[in-house]
Amino acid sequence: MLYAHTKAKLVMSALLLALPLSACATEREAMETGTETTTVQEEVKQPAMAAERTSAAASSKTGNIALVDSLQGGYTELATGLDIPWSMQFAGDTVYITQRGGGIVQVKDGKQTVQKVQTSKPLRVVGEAGLTGLVLDPDFASNQTAYIYHAYEQNGKGFNRIVRVKLTNGVWKEQKALLEGIPGGTIHEGGRLAFGPDGMLYSTSGETGQRELSQDRSSLGGKILRMTKDGKVPQDNPFANSYVYAYGLRNSQGLAWTSDGTLYASDHGPSGAPIPGGGTDRTGLDEMNMIKPGANYGWPKVMGSQTAKGMTAPIYVAGSRAIAPSGIAATPEDTILVATLAGESLKLFDPSTRKMTNILTDVGRVRDVMVHNGHIYVLTNNTSRGSAADHDDRLLQLK
């Protein structure tokens, strides 16, 4: 059993302690202006929690031990002192991590270096807005190109844009804006970027607290967007001349494909959101969705397991306590690792059983997760609305 020596300490209270992610809060607004290099000493930790072994069905899919079943317990710190990290990408053994307040941290050979990001429109950092999504070009090794999702301001209003950048002499420089005018604000910014098995670039976008945007197909807010590497609308998108691939989402921050090409996305439920006409929504109802082109996932007309004509129900709905799912990653066994913020844990979702189980707790809020070369990596997010420890925030490799 994973971390069996402390199974009795399943810390379910973590689900009760975190403030709802959708609550608006003032964040650090200073953009990185320099390059800083530090050396990280690796430390092996033993989490004080236990996590249940995933179902035997996950292992039987390949006839081998499942990735999560092979964990020995504990983790290694690969980077520390990160400032609101949001997204990570691997290029061989090198890791690149966005910080919401600005800069991309390179973690290489035990050292971490904050690299500047130069964009034609200044970074806007307020609330949940800033530098968030990052994905490396499939040919990064040869072209040193990546794509970022960042907030900016125009005529006094907040927006988001998807930009191609190139790493040149340790600085990420804008090459081309693929898409601008994505709704922005201070909450529900979305921001996850990923390349699909079809070679297309996908992005999540939030409804920025404006619920009506999610059902408005002419708006880019509350959607999953799909485009070519050059920012063009693919001819096979479900709606003609539109980047919209799926809609009716609130604040999706996770995208992952299983081996059969099925796309899954996490979405934040309404906990903490203001209710039109007065009051605050206290339900959890965070979701895992199986994404189909052109599908409507219902927000705000329906939520949780509610159904309505023409709307697609989620395949998993969390309970009344928010877990706030963020980044997700598929395992070799076609299960889904889920980083949770309010849930303060890394969880495992099995689409075949539709069950969610704990893998790692006692590290606080978890923003992103990746599987790389047979290992699981997570980014903590305690420097934003969490209880930051001395080394937070951190990049961890599970053992």
Please give the radius of gyration in angstroms.
20 Å
Helix content: under 10%
Q: Got a strand count? A: 27
Mean pLDDT: 87
Assign the CATH superfamily.
TolB, C-terminal domain
Distance between the termini: 14 Å
Task: Summarize the biggest pleated sheet.
Answer: 5 strands, antiparallel
Q: Can you count the helices?
A: 3
Kindly provide the name of the CATH class: Mainly Beta
The percentage of residues in β strands lies in 35-45%
User: Could you state the oligomeric state of the chains shown?
Assistant: single chain
Q: What's the number of structural domains?
A: 1
Strand order of the largest sheet: 1-7-6-5-4
Low-confidence stretches: 1-62
Counting helices, strands and paired strands, the structural category is mainly beta
User: What is the CATH architecture term?
Assistant: 6 Propeller
CATH fold name, please? Neuraminidase
Q: Rough shape?
A: globular
Series of secondary-structure elements, N-terminal to C-terminal: HEEHEEEEEEEHEEEEEEEEEEEEEEEEEE
